[in-house]
Specification:
The chain is 32% helix and 19% strand. It is α/β, with parallel strands linked by helices and 267 residues long. The protein has two domains: 10-173, Rossmann fold (3-Layer(aba) Sandwich); 194-260, no CATH class. An eight-stranded mixed sheet has the order 3-2-1-4-5-6-7-8. Strand 4 (111-115), helix 4 and strand 5 (142-148) form a beta-alpha-beta unit. 44% of the residues are buried. This is SAM-dependent methyltransferase. InterPro entries: SAM-dependent_MTases_sf.
Length: 267
Amino acid sequence: MGKPTGKPIGEVTRGTTGHNRLRRADRWVVAAHGRSLRSATRPLVVDLGYGASHTTTLEMFLRLRAICPSVEVVGVEIDPARVAAAKPYERPGLSFTLGGFELPVARPPLLVRAFNVLRQYGEAQAWGYWAMLSERLAPGGMIVEGTCSEVGHRAVWAGLDRSGPRTLTLSARFDSFERPSDLADRLPKALIHRNVPGEPIHAFLRDFDRAWAVNAPLSSYGSRQRWIAAAETLAGTWPLAERPPLGGRSRWRLGEITLPWSSVAPE
């Protein structure tokens, strides 16, 4: 996989970023894909559209290096000024380059993180870019594509492989919402306009709100216990991941829930 030539594919984003904004997604990546990174030879990870600052790419690099010392991370940005500003922070295993969805890297990546980059596109375009990124993955590779709030306290992301979307994860700090459906504004572009009656994602969020309400008495023990109980209630009717690394109490206690994409895929 050589570096593509020509104009980068995509549009410049707002570039909003900040320290620890993507910590929730990185924590999930370590749990869900740490083993595959450690078992790979020279695993390459791409942080696509890292924004106006190198910060979240550097944080991802440090988190992944802690569990896989051989990992290489490349931050890809479509704005030349942002790339130039990030260059001084390069170090062995971490680099920044100009590009877009074409992924101008030397070899197929095992993992691509793309956060807050598809919000400005239409649903059809988002599906197209998902397909483009999937085609560029290494065998067994994954994409983590999603959106988070300004400070990262509410986030939703899809996990994709070369065949398409496989999982959907909702993650939130317990004091950042009143009910789980508040996370609807962070849904991936492929789902955000499908949150209407008759669509599976709407039914899921409705049932999540009900499970949250039913377990309101547990609030006296803290929102974490209420979230765990709501997840256990939901698992009776929805195919939540119920065992590590994607599910179970160890993940639920973090304010995180993962379920198969097929259960919420658009009608």
